[in-house]
Structure prediction request, 842 residues.
Amino acid sequence: MRNVRLGIRDGLVFGAVFLFVVLVGLYGAFAANSLLGVRVPNMIFALFGIWVGAYVMRSVRRQGSQLTDGVVAALVAGVTMTLLLALFTFWASRVNLRDIFANMTPEVVALLTFDRGVPTGLVFQVVGGALLAVAGALGNVAWDRIRLPEGATETGNRLASFLLVLYVIVGGFTALLFALGQWGPALRDIAEGALGFALPNDLYRILRIGAVVLIVGYLGGIALTLAAPAQAVRLKERLTTTRRLFGLAFILLALFFPLSLGSYWNQVLTTIGIFVMMGLGLNVVVGFAGLLDLGYVAFFAIGAYTYAFLNSPKYGLDLSFWVSLPIAMAVAALAGIILGVPVLRMRGDYLAIVTLGFGEIIRLIMNNQVELTGGAQGILQIQPPEILGLVINTPLRFYYLIFIGAVLVAFVTARLNNSRIGRAWIAMREDEDVAQAMGINTVNYKLLAFATGAAFAGLAGLIFAARQRNIFPADFGLLVSIEALSLIIIGGMGSIPGVIAGAVALKGLPELLRALQEYRLLIYGALLVVMMLVRPEGLLPSRRRAREIHEAMEEIEIDESELQSTA
Amino acid sequence: MSDYILEARGVTKRFGGLVAVNRVDFTIERRTIAGLIGPNGAGKTTFFNCLTGLYKADEGEIIFDGKYSLIGVPPDRITALGISRTFQNIRLFGSMTALENVMVGTHCRTKTNMIDAIFHTPRYHREEAWARKRAMELLEYVGMANAADEVATSLPYGYQRRLEIARALATEPKLLLLDEPTAGMNPNETEEMTDLIRRLCDDLGVSILLIEHDMRVVMGISDKVSVLDHGELIAEGSPEDVQKNPKVIEAYLGTVGTEQAAEARRRGRDDECSN
Prediction:
């Protein structure tokens, strides 16, 4: 019963996310695209189906329930998800929803029903969703179970698991799509080309039925593998491999994807990159050292204004970007220490309020010291950087500059985290008194965290000023601090990949949501709320953080069940 | 060199009008186990906190190792000088593994700085390997090498207590302060812990100051027992002497606790017989 409830809940969540993807126009946007002959929207559909199944199975297994319970829960989740989708599709096919949801065009409805019209297409949705979810669930188990025979190397085992997952995902929906007819004509053409004669229609139909049998057999095969005795699986190692593969894919994507984008999206990417740098810096202060800083924008502003002072013709210094870079970082770090000293004895809420004030002080200085900073008119004509004669003045070039900067910042923070210094910060975050009793000079380590975080924000500010060419106090409002903090919470506090994911989600989503026009911020806010409810530890949490959050949650659950049992 | 690892003279700590520790004179000889007992609220933990620098004593002098005055010295410096402690309510770094917890303890004996950490200098590699090895050795010493990669909070209670000791040992103390190390343990675990404490003193040459409520533990392993009541030192001496001291019995049982007193006397006789 509990598993069914879990399935319904997760099915609803995934269904809502799926609907969201449809409503923002992502689904329809790829209508004309196909990959390996499969239309991209159908791939999205299949991915959602597999994903919900795998996700539900993972939750069920974590509770230590039976595998059959997990399969049932996944089935329920798949059906729930697609029922939600089917209901909406039905509604959209009867009533014109385009006044509210601009993207619910008849074309999208046709896509959602696999070109089969309303009653048949809806059945396809639900049956397909159920099958895919079960495939995902079994794939999730198989991922941990499949091992090569005794004596195989660790690399061999990892490769086997990876290929298996690939097989589950690709094989699963390939067969399904063939059965649904998406691949049918293409495969028929290939087969006929190879054979040299036309296939009779009846044979073709039989092949299609064969594909359905294939899916059943495929699922059965996975089920049989699962029945084999579970061998000791070193999940931790597998996790590292997965992370590395994703990391590599991400870096390749980040390197080459922007080349195919227009300057608008590259501009968005530079903004994301600047926030990645800020987020990584704030992550040192909040995520590692546990010092809640709400005035982080101050250091961003200090970096930007330092470059403006050193570079803008208004002040006559005319220092280049590269000379200003270390100076701006040093000035920001110094400001971090200046803020740090008075707040050394403060913790939690009190610290947050003081840092909040600090951020406002810096902004007001920028605004009111008109002779020095130009006041609200800002500082104009800041020069862009130049590398060996190449002026960095297009969004694409800035993107690569920022990419290098962000990689360096990520590298430095990762190295610091995995050292004596990182351990000292985390010890301090967990229990300041004990950390001190273990010989950690908390004063120095707090100041070090503030200075490091501030220096990275200073770097981000410097690049921001170089990109904008003109800076104004209004660019450095409280909202920037809040966004920087939100992105590390959404991404997963203390986790470097999390910060990147958070920045992409927080700064990228609003751009993707532009299609929603005036509903944009409403949906965006709702998504953030859902996100924090479903995954409080963040998108890609550090293992440490996930542990803390889940332990806290389990304690709450235990308390509740105790209450219930006593009542 | 002084015979005493620690000498406290007239240590006083007040919280507003409450005198938590009142002119306590206290010494610990090198390589011995000193027990500190007293009813709840007697000021034992406050006294501990004065020694480790968590509180600053209002009056008095504390001399460590015959040469260092500890008054006004911050806790991390005191740890670096060679005093380490465990906590009454276990305070491990909950999100870290057992090994990482102990590695934090090696902090004040290593010097890796930011430059080392970022560029992975030879010093980083050397110290990181040393800290890991040292931490592993200490986990073995307290008998929990098999749990090195477990998250601290998921460890069984007895292991958490031992982990606190391993972490404290990683700071290489000359004096180790244990705040109720056997609290909440079953007789079996208590016995193992008592053995461990004895070994720390005998094998490693660490002097130990022990706060403990379990009389059998304190009386069994202490070379000297001191009794605090209402912040004042009311008795001091060998375990046998202290047990017979009427002031101690009164402090623990009040004047009406005749029944318990009889029980205590009987237990004392039993102990003598078994010795």
